[in-house]
Structure formats: structure tokens, C-alpha cells
Amino acid sequence: IGVDFALKVLNWDENTIIRLQLWDIAGQERFGSMTRIYFKDAVGAFICCDVSRPRTFEAVTNWKRDLDSKVTLADGSNIPCILLANKCDLPKEEPFLNASFIDKYCQENGFIGWYFTSAKENINVEESASFLVSEV
């Protein structure tokens, strides 16, 4: 309920194929009590916001805090997490997110990086996945 699952295959090099299990918990706060189950054994994460809906960015901090409180690496450190500012393909009259703001936000909140993305147009999907894998 409220979760989608996908597999992303990366051809890392000529000898290595990486299969990422992606769990989309759809940003629905009503499932917040179940996130520990979804986060179990994760070694990296993406947190997404919709560049056309400022309210989704407001929830990013809460999702990052929830992630950091419920899953860590074996050494106790936080798992690598990338912020994805999705739907960058949509026309924007007045963009509420700009690169310098996101850079500062990510640095202050423990993200290892961020990307403007479009799932629809396949913009920065491969790049962000490859970056996360390189940090795991």
C-alpha cells in the first residue's frame, strides 16, 4: 500500500552490472510509521521534490531527518542521500528553486549532492543513479 518498486540496471563497466532496487514511498506522510521497514538494509537513497510544487520541497527536510534517524551504515554514519529536483522539463514562470539555494541546502542538510531531473524526459536519471552508486 502506497509503495512502488522498480529495478534500475546500470552497466557500470565492461565486467560489472549493478542492479538497484528502488522503493518509491510516494512521499505520503501517512505511511511515515512504516518507513523503517522500507529503509531497512538501504545503503543509499534519493529524496525527490517536484520543482513545480513548492510544498513538496518543504517535506524534503522531514524525509531526510526520518531517513537519517532510521537507517545508518555499519559504521554508524548516514547512508549517502541525493536530492532529486524532479520535473525540470516543465515550463516555469518563476522557479522557486535555484542552483545556489539547493547547493547551500544540501550542504546544510547532509545530502551528498543533487540533480535537476525529469523522469518523463530521462534527464539526469542515469547520472544521478551512477553518482549514488559511486558513493556507496
UniProtKB/TrEMBL annotation:
<dbReference type="GO" id="GO:0003924">
    <property type="term" value="F:GTPase activity"/>
</dbReference>
<keyword id="KW-0472">Membrane</keyword>
<keyword id="KW-0342">GTP-binding</keyword>
<keyword id="KW-0636">Prenylation</keyword>
<dbReference type="InterPro" id="IPR001806">
    <property type="entry name" value="Small_GTPase"/>
</dbReference>
<dbReference type="GO" id="GO:0005764">
    <property type="term" value="C:lysosome"/>
</dbReference>
<protein>
    <recommendedName>
        <fullName>Ras-related protein Rab</fullName>
    </recommendedName>
</protein>
<dbReference type="GO" id="GO:0090385">
    <property type="term" value="P:phagosome-lysosome fusion"/>
</dbReference>
<dbReference type="InterPro" id="IPR027417">
    <property type="entry name" value="P-loop_NTPase"/>
</dbReference>
<dbReference type="GO" id="GO:0008333">
    <property type="term" value="P:endosome to lysosome transport"/>
</dbReference>
<dbReference type="GO" id="GO:0005802">
    <property type="term" value="C:trans-Golgi network"/>
</dbReference>
<comment type="similarity">
    <text>Belongs to the small GTPase superfamily. Rab family.</text>
</comment>
<dbReference type="GO" id="GO:0005770">
    <property type="term" value="C:late endosome"/>
</dbReference>
<comment type="function">
    <text>The small GTPases Rab are key regulators in vesicle trafficking.</text>
</comment>
<dbReference type="InterPro" id="IPR030697">
    <property type="entry name" value="Rab29/Rab38/Rab32"/>
</dbReference>
<dbReference type="GO" id="GO:0045335">
    <property type="term" value="C:phagocytic vesicle"/>
</dbReference>
<dbReference type="GO" id="GO:0016020">
    <property type="term" value="C:membrane"/>
</dbReference>
<dbReference type="GO" id="GO:0005525">
    <property type="term" value="F:GTP binding"/>
</dbReference>
<keyword id="KW-0547">Nucleotide-binding</keyword>
<dbReference type="Pfam" id="PF00071">
    <property type="entry name" value="Ras"/>
</dbReference>
<keyword id="KW-0449">Lipoprotein</keyword>
